[in-house]
Write the structure tokens for this entry.
Amino acid sequence: MLAGVQLSDGLKLEAIADGGFSYAEIPYEIIEKNELPTYKKKEGDSRVLKLSGFSYPLAKLTPDKMYELLENCRKYQGNYIVLDTMNCEAGILENVVEECSMMMTDYRIPVFIENGCNGSDETGYLNNAYSDISSLKSIAEYCNRLCDTAIVGISINVGYSNLLAKNVRSQIDQCSEYLCMIHANDNGGVYNEKQMPFTFTRGRGNLITDWYHIIGALIKIEFSGWMIFDNSGTFARVPEVLQTQYVRMLHAIVKEWQGQFTFVERVLNKPDKKLILFGAGQMLWDYMDTLGDKFPPYFAVDNGKMRWGTKVYGVDVKAPSAILDVPAQERNVVICCMYYDAISAQLKAMGVEHSEFQDRYFV
């Protein structure tokens, strides 16, 4: 998964770079007004902030504009063009590709069409021709037939899906073979607020946007595309002095998500070690349902004495001290319980290295 931040009013490229990202998405309107923006590197900083790609409103797309987009994307070494379909009529991309298919094939720069809707914060939002994944797939399939190669893919804008109460997990499943990008922004389901992920909750802290299962759905399809944070609503209000700190929060989110993407290969795929799960409650059942067939545990341990000597989902349950019966170089201990911090402290006191299974991403 490649990650970046979309440049927006109030956000500086320096904050994106200093915040830890290597890619910035540039709305093409900025290029139309001026040249590609640059940033000042700090002395001794070896990092290079690169262009991930351009975003552009599909409603304004013409064959001439497609040529201009492709030419500048190549000039500035961008990786894609993503088309925003908010308040957009049907048929625009198909008409452009009918005229530009040979040119698009020659440039070989991917073009992503995004889900959208019609309306505004004042009037509310309704479905348009690009709201349903089935429509986006039909458009991508048609355009790719014209180009005789896979040029057009799909981008899912999580915030736009929220405005229409769409199930993002289902959308991901529907277009897995075409999905090339996620635009990650949050809202409360009413206004197009474009805030950072994990911003909106209801009741006692329940997330309005189910980010954990969205990432879980991406893990399931082995997503390797772009994750671009388009959080213009956040950065329009954040003081300049705090921008870098907010971008670092986004970078921390990326690290958390990437850790879950690599969990199976990094933690479980160790055939030379014995997998020991700490916890014999509901999370053990969840683990066995999702990953148990491929990575069966050697045994499980639990602090509840009543469970010692029993089987849960066919797995032997023992006392935590049984971990020490397996030589350190032969064991792979994974916490499989909601009380991560307490059990982690317990295992550290026992001198046992361990990892964590976070079922909220996988169940």
User: Anything to note?
Assistant: The first strand starts at residue 2 and ends at 6.
